[in-house]
Amino acid sequence: MLQAAERANTPAAETGSPAAEGRIGPGPTGTLALVSFTPSRQERLIPAEELATAQKTLTDLIGRLAGVIPKEHPGRAADSTQVSPSVPPGESAGRPGSRSGPSVRVAPPSETYQDLGRRVVEALREHGLSVELRGEPIVGPTFLRFALRPGRGVRVRQIEQRASEIQLRLGLDAAPLLSVGEGDVLVDLPRPDRQTVVFSDVRSQLPEPAPIRGCSKLLLGVDLNGQLQFADLSEPEDAHFLVAGTTGSGKTEWLRAAIASLMLTNTPETLQLLLIDPKRNGFPFLKDSSFLWKPVVYLDEHDPVEVLDDLVQEMEERYRRMGGADSLAEYVRKEGTLLPRIVCFCDEYADLVTVDSKQRKAIEQVICRLGQKARAAGIHLVLATQQPSRQVVSGALKTNLPARVALRTTQAIESRMLLDEDGAERLLGLGDLLFKDIGRPRRLQGVYLPQHERNSLAGIA
Asked: Residue 435: exposed, middle, or buried by beta-carbon count in 10 A (0-12, 13-18, 19+)?
């Protein structure tokens, strides 16, 4: 070691060269000097372009070892830019028990996409913000994700404040969605040749059915890798959902795809559905399904308070029957008897609570009670509304519906009501969504269930 220190004490050391100091470090021009003593002093200069490739490989390796980058999808893919994903890393196709299936095919980066990135950089530089476009855009079915590295002295907030200028410069209908990931500012721009994700294209990625336990994975959407993402209803953070989106956002289509994913991975013995359809056009294709716990609930034919009270009674009866089991899965495992999971979907919750104050209070009390206790009994709520306002969604209701799906909203205040932050008002509609349970929201594309595929569901035993 002494000999090495003496050899490092060369004239080069007097110039402040990183190599002379016996360490690895970037030079003033972006090159890197690698110094070793084996036993004589050896020095190698690595150009910046070679360093970029090596740095990406090392980053991917560290990420996989740390468990924050899926092993089957190394590199800077969709999950590596998302904060706090709801499914564990490495299980983007639906967690353990899912089938391995081809991802949604998306187009490779084209010159048109590259030009959009350059125009974003130009728009920011016009306002004195030095940024660097890093790599090629990630191409999802709905949007393109560009990574910008801020220059020295440029704050993220300054870039965020120029979202409207980017919108104007690129002729967008809405300001782009900006986020932070991997040390970059991520800019999401609408894809000019948007791709519709049809349910049949991703059906092979659904989890394998479990004949006795059933499957608790609910389809959320497709990520930037073209892989399905799921939420596990058996987990506390995903036990109950609040879904919101304006007309044309894809809210009802999202509900249909979520129901289809549950039906195709279960049997009527492991899954029962309670469908509340105030507008009568959400779930007509399921009116004769053997998966129904009760007939489809129409407000002019059924009292929603009575229906939800029946669900509470079912919950209490299950607790008595389960004899202290912590969850439905534990009870089924111990007893070896089937007890179906019950999932209640409501297509327009606002219609239930805007009739009169008495009904609103009764329904909110029932919903809160189910939200607090129903998960362990295998009962779950998925409530959707066009208007996530305080008049519709109370604070107690939000507390007991922890998982949120935000499709496009009309105003930023509605996004904040749902996600506690802006963003949903800038989504593109037609299934473009933000999902949040723990951590920050992540962006996905909902799956479209065409009419002929809905009709096929009606024939499932």
From this structure: buried
Buried b (16+ CB within 10 A) or exposed e, 228-249: bbbbbbbbeebbbbbbbbbeeb
The 10s digit of each residue's pLDDT in 146-187 is 999 999 999 999 999 999 999 999 999 999 999 998 889 999
In sequence order, the β-bridge partners of residue 380 are 343
Number of neighbouring beta carbons within 10 Å of residue 132: 11
Q: Could you give the dihedral angle defined by the CA atoms of residues 120, 113, 424 and 273, in that order, rounded to the nearest 10 degrees?
A: -170
Q: Enter the CATH code of domain 199-458.
A: 3.40.50.300
Please, are residues 352 and 299 in contact by the beta-carbon 8 Å criterion? Answer: yes
Which of helix, strand or coil describes residue 9?
coil
DSSP 3-state helix, strand, coil percentages of the chain (rounded to 5)? 35, 20, 45
Q: Are 240 and 367 in contact (CB under 8 A)?
A: no
How far is Cα 293 from Cα 285, in angstroms, rounded to an integer? 15
Third-level CATH fold of 111-190: Threonyl-tRNA Synthetase; Chain A, domain 2 (3.30.980)
The reported pLDDT for the residue numbered 76 is 33
Report the predicted TM-score, pTM, of the whole model to 2 decimal places: 0.77
